[in-house]
């Protein structure tokens, strides 16, 4: 699991026990737990299980979960490159979130560009896709600025909470 530099002084690193504060903050967000596997409500046990899942994903080869760290050294978000379906579908999936106090400061964009460049370059992933809810204009702008192009709606996409939602599908070849 590499550490990746990102634009504007951001960097990406593996999840660790020191990141439970970020998880607590994300679990309290009204949106993040709905579309991710962040545990809500937060508990120490749920946080430990989340951290173990992140470690295990890299170990078994299904993904690369990174913490987004700002220039001051604070953990502010998450970005994951999921490669488990790469052999079947010929593409990986990326997802990201940023805690509310750190939004609109370029963290997601810097992280997405860094992971995308690494995946398409060093890992030789042929294409990457991501899914965004149609109302999430910030995430749409982030995806488009990183060179992702909308390929159409995906009706009743099932995020980690299992509740079907319509999303936009974006792809970066």
From TrEMBL:
Domain N-acetyltransferase residue range list: 10-173
Alphabetized InterPro entries for the sequence: Acyl_CoA_acyltransferase, GNAT_dom, Ribosomal_N-acetyltransferase
Region of interest: Disordered: 143-173
Pfam family, one: Acetyltransf_3
Composition bias, Basic and acidic residues: 158-173
Protein name: GNAT family protein
Organism: Kitasatospora saccharophila
């Amino acid at each position: 699991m590499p550490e990746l530099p990102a634009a504007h002084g951001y960097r990406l690193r593996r999840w660790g026990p020191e990141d439970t504060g970020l998880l607590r903050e994300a679990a309290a967000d009204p949106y993040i737990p709905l579309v991710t596997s962040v545990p809500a409500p937060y508990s120490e046990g749920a946080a430990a299980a989340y951290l173990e899942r992140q470690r295990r994903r890299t170990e078994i080869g299904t993904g690369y979960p990174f913490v987004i760290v700002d220039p001051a050294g604070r953990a502010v978000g998450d970005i994951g490159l999921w490669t488990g379906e790469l052999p079947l579908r010929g593409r990986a999936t990326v997802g990201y979130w940023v805690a509310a106090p750190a939004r609109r400061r370029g963290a997601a964009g810097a992280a997405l560009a860094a992971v995308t460049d690494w995946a398409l370059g060093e890992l030789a992933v042929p294409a990457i896709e991501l899914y965004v809810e149609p109302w999430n204009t910030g995430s749409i702008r982030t995806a488009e600025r990183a060179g992702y192009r909308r390929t159409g709606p995906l009706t009743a996409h099932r995020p980690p909470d299992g509740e079907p939602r319509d999303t936009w599908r974006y792809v970066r070849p």
